[in-house]
């Protein structure tokens, strides 16, 4: 059998997409890092979206029009979402979505206070890579709000790096890789690497969310959407989506 190069394989996927033979964009990086504090989820009487739906409320309130998550994917109509949820053992809440300052909190307006990177992606979404840097110390939510609120427009913004939580490289690199064997078969690998000098513990709590308006896991074309497991386990195959996780407790 003639070996197909990666470039030619991706070209074949795109041609199949254009001709309507296969829907490679059924799943993709459509999940926002943040849906709180946006006009889409604003139910305030006077249009104060930033204050009406805060980051603190996001973990307890249901979104109506979209979802958010870190390094996540969803189908293109966001019927089913998959994303990271992390806990370093000391934070008061799970790390499920990007944190930042609203326009009224930041001395230079809206400002995300996270470090995350989109490392790779193919046009068909057949391969995706995402990296998040998660501090091992308690995340300084209050300090970021207070210090930036104290500063004026002429002062520089106070960033996450300025808080000292990354001193001595005491953080986790959490990488998520998505690989699609077909438009409806997705393999997911989560790799957590300790970059600090000492042993540390991280909890990987990948989550799923189904939009409340979707009673059945199906789409308009009648095709069945993949199901996620009730709990994640190493190299545990299941219908539609396959996952594996690995981590290093010691020095990375």
Notes on the protein architecture:
Residues 213-241 and 248-252 have low confidence and may be disordered. The longest helix has 13 residues, at 6-18. This protein is α+β, with helices and mostly antiparallel strands. It is 12% helix and 27% strand. The chain is built from four helices and 13 strands. It is globular and about 55 Å long. A hairpin with a 5-residue loop joins strand 7 and strand 8 (127-135). It has one domain (23-247).
Main attributes of the structure:
single chain, 252 residues, alpha+beta, 4 helices, 13 strands, 12% helix
Topology:
Layout: H1 6-18, E1 27-28, H2 49-52, H3 55-58, E2 70-75, E3 80-84, E4 86-87, E5 100-101, E6 111-112, E7 116-121, E8 127-135, H4 141-150, E9 171-182, E10 185-194, E11 203-204, E12 207-210, E13 241-247
């Amino acid at each position: 059998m003639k070996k197909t190069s990666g470039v030619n394989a991706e070209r074949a996927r795109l041609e199949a997409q254009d001709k309507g033979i296969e829907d490679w964009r059924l799943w993709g990086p459509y999940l926002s890092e943040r849906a709180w504090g946006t006009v889409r989820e604003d139910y305030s009487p006077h249009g104060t979206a930033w204050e009406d739906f805060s980051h603190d409320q996001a973990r307890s309130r249901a979104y109506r029009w979209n979802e958010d998550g870190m390094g996540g994917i969803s189908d293109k109509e966001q019927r089913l979402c998959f994303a990271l949820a992390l806990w370093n053992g000391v934070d008061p809440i799970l790390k499920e979505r990007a944190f930042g300052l609203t326009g009224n909190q930041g001395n230079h307006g809206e400002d995300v206070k996270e470090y995350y990177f989109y490392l790779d992606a193919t046009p068909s979404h057949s391969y995706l890579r995402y990296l998040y840097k998660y501090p091992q110390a308690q995340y300084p939510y209050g300090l970021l709000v207070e210090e930036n609120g104290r500063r004026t427009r002429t002062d520089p913004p106070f960033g996450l790096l300025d808080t000292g939580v990354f001193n001595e490289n005491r953080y986790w690199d959490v990488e998520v890789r998505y690989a699609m064997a077909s438009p409806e078969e997705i393999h997911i690998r989560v790799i957590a690497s300790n970059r600090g000098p000492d042993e540390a513990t991280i909890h990987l709590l990948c989550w799923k969310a189904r939009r409340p308006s979707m009673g059945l896991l199906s789409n308009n074309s009648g095709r069945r959407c993949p199901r996620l497991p009730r709990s994640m386990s190493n190299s545990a195959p299941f219908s539609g989506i396959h996952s594996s996780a690995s981590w290093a407790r010691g020095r990375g």
